[in-house]
Here is the input.
Amino acid sequence: MPTDVERWKDEVYGNEIRDHLMEFAEEGWDSIPEDEEDAWFERFKWWGLYHQRAGQESYFMMRIGTPNGVIEPGQLRVVGEIAKEYATGPVENPEFGEAYCDWTTRQSIQLHWIKLEDVPEIFEKLEDNGLSTQQACGDSWRNIVGCPVAGKDKQELVDAWPIARDLHDTFKGDEDHTNLPRKWKVSVTGCTEGCGQGDINDLALEPARKEIDGETVTGFNVRVGGGLSRKEPRLARDIDVFVRPDNADEVAGGLSALFREHGDRENRYNARIKFLVDEWGVEKIRRVLQEDFVDFDLHTAGEDLRDEYTYNTGSQDGHNDHVGVHEQADGNYYVGLNVLVGRMGAEDTLELADLAAEYGSGEVRLTQRQNIIVTDVPEENLDALLDEPLLEDYSPDPSPFMRGSIACTGTEFCSLSIVETKNRQVRYARWLKDNVELPADHEEFHIHLSGCTASCAQPQIADVSLRGMKTRKDGDPVEAFDIGLGGGLGEDPRFADWIEMRVAADEVPGAIANLIADFETEREAGETFREFVEARDEDELGELLDPEETDYEDPYMHNTKKTWYPYADDDNMDDSPAPTDGQGEPLPADD
Amino acid sequence: MLVRGDAYTNEAPEGPPMTTAVRILDDGAWISVDDERVVSVSELWQLADHDVCGCETADFLIEGFVDVDAAGPAVLVRAAGQCVTCGESAVSGWLPVGRIVGPDRRFASLATGHVRTPRA
Here is the structure.
């Protein structure tokens, strides 16, 4: 039996949602019939609008999809202006101020506290500048990710940016692919370092070479069915297909259509293609793709470059991320700036837009580690850019703990999260920076903090994985984390092993400090942290992870989900001003 | 037995049948009753006479709702979660979350501290 979501999608979905959205926006929040709210909020996701959690009714998160994280010259200013004008909530965030942009792990942009009534103006401004929220959420093609310096990188087999752009242009708004059983996450990578994180996507195109008719052709091998959500992480599986760049849209579209026809529409928990790959196996996926969804003979897989991958491998060699100053293939430079937990104030965003225009081409790019890259900086401009005061806060040479921190949205806005995340991770990173020394040969150390099992912060592929939990401390329920160790990507990707469960949030920094101290003293010469973890069993690692209170103080130990906003002075649900009208004034209660 | 996302038709004492729409939203984050988000994940529920773990009273963290149903005035859910005392993960049996009450058919939620027993 189809779910309600499928029924709602059958009635209205895809591009046509926009007309209704605009009508509701024109008439105001109150115009959405109460008995249709669930249906419309589900549909609005397709246009990038996600209703915020309880206590924040009438406010939306807005996601802007920027394929491959490319923000073209002029667009960052537009995003900053929109954030400043429209993304201001009733109460300031104590770490980030009153308006800010989130750079996400899928190279997208998220704004919060968006009012429905402002959507038409925001859409107009975005679209006038080549930006869109279309399909940023919902059951269809999501933002396409890849190596953020595609087309500029010196370590590149194929320039994947034109292919990602083409897939974006082809499948955004394509009626044949607008209503899939579930989200469809695609990664396209041409670099030799594995920056596209293809292994954790529904569909991954990864660089490869193939001898065809006596000629060596560069293109992509195809993997299908990766993903981290729930407690069912999967690595994308090799379906033994090589695709030329000019056939990429046919194969990607064929797989999307296969998913559309054969994905599970009766159980949303079983809907992602990773479960279809589990059920069918890769041979059947390939066979059905060939027989029913493409009209040319598929090539078998080519020679991949996975043994060259360095990204997020913990190897401390090559690129583990894109922070720092790096030469581009054209002789210019890109400067990767660390944005702690991916959140940048609106004023800082506007300032960075000016710096990118002054010192580079005006283009910036978002990474899958929630950071931002200023591209196309001529060598003669580097020193001046690096001397800019803004780069003291968004450093190209940060502490490993600042550099390696990723956090999802958390209970500040998200319905699913169990714990507060971003502000807490900021406090963790600062405490670790001030109190813990990594071995001198470790410049990178990844700590990913996710508020729940949805895994938006990709916790399973970090050195230290934190997943939101609860526990009791002195009898009282407090926010907590499961702690995992040893995850990462590369030639042999590995999900973290969950070692210590239900650690009270205020004991996590102490646990990490104790672990790193033991790593320093017990490691073999030259052994990386990932190797150190791999060499030990769970019991040994559990001994090393010794949670304890320190002078770290955590202001979010209480149940932040029970507040209307965790940082409000009066944070009880009853103190919420929501829902509000288009001017942000509280609307009268229904009864 | 109704499955997730279906509307439940609840017989009123007089007049035509009244419909209570119960569904799970946002990837299992919410229970919606008549298009109002009424129960959220992340709460700790005390479970007695249950089968999620060996604890006499489970201290069960609700991580995601799996099924929702209405049985008469009672709204019941099955939830994926974990007992934070022993660490056992499980999908619970049918647990009460509240009732439809009064002539205006308002949803009254059980208090968080209420000890819940799965329905057969």
